[in-house]
């Protein structure tokens, strides 16, 4: 039997047991996709990422929830690149390119004002589909009433690598009340039944943040809630330029997430309008090593 070492990192926070936990498996070329899926299921984090070789980039990342493979994951990208950089595997490189299921994406490394390693990743071009489902049923499925959903902003499916339903919420005090019934999601999200649900608000706890959010997993993922979500934070930035202030050409801000479940984290988001059809999306964050898990296959 072969030993598989899974490194546990928490992303989007410099503090252990905050932010979003991810499993990281380095040098995973010898693993089949079914073995990767089995490992992700055993680890049980929202995502486990496997670092493999690439013919078109510096490395390739494959991401698995406990239930299935996904195309892109922000926090697992942060965790794996933090591991590779701090372990010296990437040497003095200030940037690398990663191959993912949505294409080759650039990564940049820098240090923030607190001397934490900062990782900046580009995401896929944002895509949107307007939600045409039952708003009252949707509110019930996340433990709210219809009047707590903002009427002046649209509910849309958004994607910069993974589809999620963006649900604008009027007041931040609604977030403590939320109790997702994930099993109801597929029958409500009829256009994209495997999408997650991402309620957000422009009211925040931290005055330096612009948006507050929670993220409820698709029941097909095998998890309930994602503490701090990179891809959804990125698509929220593009949502801001498209629906909240369409006259802006760029914006940079922090998203806060995880406070309701004791996993406080921050994602820095940058978005730039290139033309009427294209918006570039970047997210930045740090990570921290927590521990190791030994599995056998």
Could you characterize what this model shows?
- There is one protein chain.
- 17% of the residues lie in helices and 36% in strands.
- It has helices spanning 33-43, 74-86, 135-141, 185-188, 230-244, and strands spanning 3-11, 20-25, 47-52, 59-64, 69-70, 95-100, 103-111, 117-122, 127-130, 156-159, 163-168, 196-201, 211-213, 250-257, 265-273, 279-285, 287-296.
- It has a 17-stranded mixed β-sheet that branches.
- The longest helix has 15 residues, at 230-244.
- The protein starts with a strand and ends with a strand.
- Belongs to the PhzF family.
- Pfam families: PhzC-PhzF.
- The active site is at residue 47.
- It comes from Paenibacillus etheri.
Question: Briefly, what is this?
Answer:
The chain has helices at residues 33-43, 74-86, 135-141, 185-188, 230-244, and strands at residues 3-11, 20-25, 47-52, 59-64, 69-70, 95-100, 103-111, 117-122, 127-130, 156-159, 163-168, 196-201, 211-213, 250-257, 265-273, 279-285, 287-296. It has 297 residues and is α+β, with helices and mostly antiparallel strands.
The number of strands is 17
Count of the domains: 2
Helical content band = 10-25%
Give the ordered list of helices and strands.
EEHEEEHEEEEHEEHEEHEEEE
Main sheet, how many strands, which sense, barrel? 17 strands, mixed
Mean pLDDT across residues? 96
- Low-pLDDT segments: none
Q: So what's the overall shape?
A: globular
Strand content range: 35-45%
Give the name of the CATH architecture of the largest domain.
Roll
CATH top level class name of the largest domain: Alpha Beta
**CATH topology call of the largest domain:** Diaminopimelate Epimerase, Chain A, domain 1
Radius of gyration of CA atoms, rounded to a whole number: 18 Å
CATH H-tier superfamily of the largest domain:
Diaminopimelate Epimerase, Chain A, domain 1
């Amino acid at each position: 039997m072969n030993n598989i070492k899974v490194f546990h990192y928490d992303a989007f926070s410099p503090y252990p047991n905050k932010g979003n936990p991810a499993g990281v498996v380095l040098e995973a070329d010898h693993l089949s996709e079914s073995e990767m899926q089995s490992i992700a299921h055993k680890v049980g984090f929202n995502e486990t990422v496997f670092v493999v070789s690439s013919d078109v980039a510096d490395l390739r990342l494959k991401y698995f929830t406990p239930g299935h493979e996904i195309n892109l994951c922000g926090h697992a990208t942060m965790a794996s690149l933090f591991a590779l950089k701090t372990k010296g595997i990437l040497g003095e490189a200030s940037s690398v390119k990663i191959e993912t299921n949505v294409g080759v994406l650039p990564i940049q490394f820098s240090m923030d004002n607190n001397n934490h390693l900062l990782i900046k990743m580009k995401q896929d071009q944002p895509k949107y589909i307007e939600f045409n489902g039952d708003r009252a049923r949707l509110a019930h499925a996340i433990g709210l009433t219809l009047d707590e959903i903002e009427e002046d902003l649209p509910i849309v499916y958004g994607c910069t690598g993974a589809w999620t339903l963006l649900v604008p919420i009027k007041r931040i005090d609604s977030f403590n009340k939320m109790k997702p019934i994930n099993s109801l999601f597929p029958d409500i999200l009829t256009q994209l039944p495997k999408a997650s649900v991402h309620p957000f608000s422009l009211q925040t706890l931290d005055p330096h943040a612009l948006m507050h959010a929670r993220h409820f997993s698709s029941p097909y993922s095998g998890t309930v809630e994602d503490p701090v979500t990179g891809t959804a934070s990125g698509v929220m930035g593009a949502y801001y330029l498209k629906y909240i202030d369409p006259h802006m050409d760029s914006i940079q801000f922090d998203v806060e997430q995880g406070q309701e479940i004791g996993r406080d984290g921050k994602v820095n988001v940058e978005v730039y309008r290139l033309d009427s059809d294209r918006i570039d999306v970047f997210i930045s964050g740090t990570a921290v090593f927590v521990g190791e898990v030994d599995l056998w296959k």
